[in-house]
């Protein structure tokens, strides 16, 4: 344990504990290691066609960590085929609603969804469609009815898809690798 310099109530063996800096946490040194924040304006990023009835707007594509964050827009009655993720996923519904064909709940605007890695599901939208913010890490695997992998996506394939779309449409791709 690192004892704070101003807390004399802690009885710590100072021969083995690290002494804290005058500011208690040595924030100056930590700040020097911190990467600057990013402010991403989604209006500057195009909706990229993904599969029929589904467009994505990437907001973060970190190739070092495998984290990818995107807005996903699905038209009413649209389907994102049967799949699972190699890591957990967090979703926040901004508009509309959707559900997993294999479950008995509906995700509506304002709701957050967490799914564990390996959970097999098929995303289906209600008639109004949906726009959802998804935070993912690692791959997404598409499956056939026999649970054989028939396709996949990850931060690298999404990065390529985004850059290719921008290039083909004369749009300057933003650096989303952070």
Any overview of this molecule?
The protein is mainly beta and 178 residues long. It has helices spanning 27-33, 155-168; strands at residues 48-51, 54-61, 67-74, 79-85, 89-100, 107-108, 112-115, 121-137, 140-143, 149-153. It is built from two helices and ten strands; from the N terminus they run αββββββββββα. Strands 1, 2, 3, 4, 5, 6, 7, 8, 9 and 10 form a ten-stranded antiparallel sheet that branches. It starts with 26 loop residues before the first helix and ends in a 10-residue tail after the last helix. Residues 12-17 have low confidence and may be disordered.
Task: Name a few traits of the molecule.
single chain; 178 residues; mainly beta; 10-stranded antiparallel beta sheet; 2 helices
Short précis:
With 178 residues, this protein is mainly beta. 12% of the residues lie in helices and 40% in strands.
């Amino acid at each position: 344990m690192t004892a704070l310099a101003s807390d004399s109530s802690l009885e710590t063996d100072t021969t083995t504990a690290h002494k804290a800096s005058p500011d208690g946490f040595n924030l100056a040194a930590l700040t020097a290691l911190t990467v600057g924040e990013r402010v991403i304006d989604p209006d500057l990023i195009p909706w990229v066609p993904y599969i029929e009835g589904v467009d994505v707007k990437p907001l973060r594509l970190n190739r070092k960590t495998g984290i990818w964050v995107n807005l996903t827009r699905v038209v009413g009655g649209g389907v994102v085929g049967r799949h699972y993720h190699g890591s957990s996923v967090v979703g926040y519904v901004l508009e509309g609603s959707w559900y997993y064909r294999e479950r008995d709940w509906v995700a509506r605007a304002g709701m957050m969804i967490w799914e564990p890695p390996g959970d097999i599901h098929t995303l289906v939208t209600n008639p109004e469609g949906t726009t959802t913010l998804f935070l993912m890490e690692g791959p997404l695997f598409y499956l056939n009815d026999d649970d054989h992998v028939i396709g996949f996506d990850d931060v690298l394939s999404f990065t390529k898809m985004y850059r290719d779309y921008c290039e083909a449409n004369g749009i300057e791709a933003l650096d989303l690798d952070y």
